[in-house]
Amino acid sequence: MSSRRDVVVIGAGIAGLACAHRLHREGVDVEVIEGGDRVGGSLRSERIDGHVVDLGPQTVMSRDPELFGQLTELGLDDALTVAGSGGKKRFIVVDGRPVALPGGPVSLLTTRSLTWRGKLRLLKEPLAPPGPGGDESADAFVRRRLGPEVAERMLDPFVSGVHAGDPDTLSMRAAFPSLLEAERAHGSLARWALDRFHEGIRQRKRAKAEGRPSPKRGRTPSRLFSFSEGLEMWPRALARALGSDRVRTGTRATMIQPGAQGGWVVGVGNDVITAESVVLAVPAPAAAELVDGISTGGARVLRDVPYSPVTTVHLTYPRNAVPHRLDGFGMLIPSRERRPVLGILWISSLFPGRASSDVVQTTSFVGGARFPELAGLPESELVDLVHGEHARILGAAAEPGLRYVARWTHAIPRMEFGHVDRLATLERMERLNPGIHLAGSYAGSGPSVPACWARGRGVAERILETRAAPTTRRETPR
Ligand SMILES: Cc1cc2nc3c(=O)[nH]c(=O)nc-3n(C[C@H](O)[C@H](O)[C@H](O)COP(=O)(O)OP(=O)(O)OC[C@H]3O[C@@H](n4cnc5c(N)ncnc54)[C@H](O)[C@@H]3O)c2cc1C
Fold first, then answer.
1. Mean pLDDT rounded to a whole number for the chain
2. For residues 18 and 9, what is the distance between their CA atoms, to the nearest angstrom?
3. CA-CA to 180 of 20 to 30 Å: which in 252, 294, 388, 441?
């Protein structure tokens, strides 16, 4: 069967749905094609033995008023669960024990997460030598500016736990461009922070003198959230708003070809859909297969984007069997501790409504660039391994109740050296093939859920602009 749409979006993760929803609201005829049997991609939530379990991302952090506006519009306000103040307290493991990370500049001097030698080195940051020019690894940058302890105890677990990556190969230009710019413009991160602080004071004084509200008051604070039935409620609500005739699940897109009269033809199972624009909101390997017939160079670059597998292991324990108070977000584990788990999040502390007060629920991360082979262990071995870490680090003295394992083979793209050049090649491919848009998590400013949501919306804005410009509309020179 063949049909025609204005836009086809391939992939019903948060990026694809955000893109389609924005277009649909502007009256664009859009269809979303999803290979899996449900929408949401990595945002996947299950109710298991009475517990709400998020199998992929656990929390979303945002201060974007547009994002919260959309949640309101989708009717999700009542389901929104914002993490309590405990969410602000984060731990790392030092010598086998969870140690709270400093919450601000003053607690940097009192924290047990750094030795006195590490703190003194940190104070010398303004004297650190400038970078080598060009790209630098995150590890080299932090070692150079903040010292080896901050690199090993803070950066390393952050990169492993959040990016599933390796600080030795993570590109500063790709992953933390604003820090590079801060160093370039201010000569030091400490001077940059001080300059920002003074600028804030100046702005508030100016606002006061002119009788305007203080700029800080108008800024929405960041919120760390999920939903009562888990994060998947968000993509499900987006799909509902689009309507069932615009979201097709259980069918993969298999090819994209130039249309005979302009536009693009997308193969979907036994059907073909002709569209002016096609949005590829899928991981890089899937995008590579789809663009192979359009741009072999683009396909090669997409195949080269490195990913690590991550497995999440979800456990519960009776509250009285875990002596640690679990009074925070959870703990990340630096490589130097030589432990098999990347981090353990204390879900029942973050979202107390998720579990009854006599039970604690945790999510642990295994694999990443540090231990990719461990992500593929059999389920029972993974549960034993993770339970062992709960027993040794947190003192868990009972067998876990709930045990659930979820595997992500292409969890998070690693923004390694060469990523910025890769993106430049992909942008060139998009320019040469008007109407083809890449919205995968490798293509934007980062892999977080809000960044992917924003990327999807950004692509929608670009399509809306093109449609509004009469000269370029419906022309597809290649
Ligand atoms: C274990 C894990 C933990 C994470 N933790 C966090 C966190 O705590 N906070 C945070 O902000 N971010 C986190 N992330 C990152 C974040 O979840 C993802 O980067 C983001 O959700 C990706 O969204 P997406 O829409 O780009 O892609 P995806 O969610 O990957 O969706 C892509 C969709 O495309 C479909 N698809 C693929 N090929 C085809 C095809 N040919 N035809 C049709 N459909 C196709 C797939 O089935 C999938 O549904 C985590 C990710 C993982 C895996």
1. 93
2. 10
3. 441
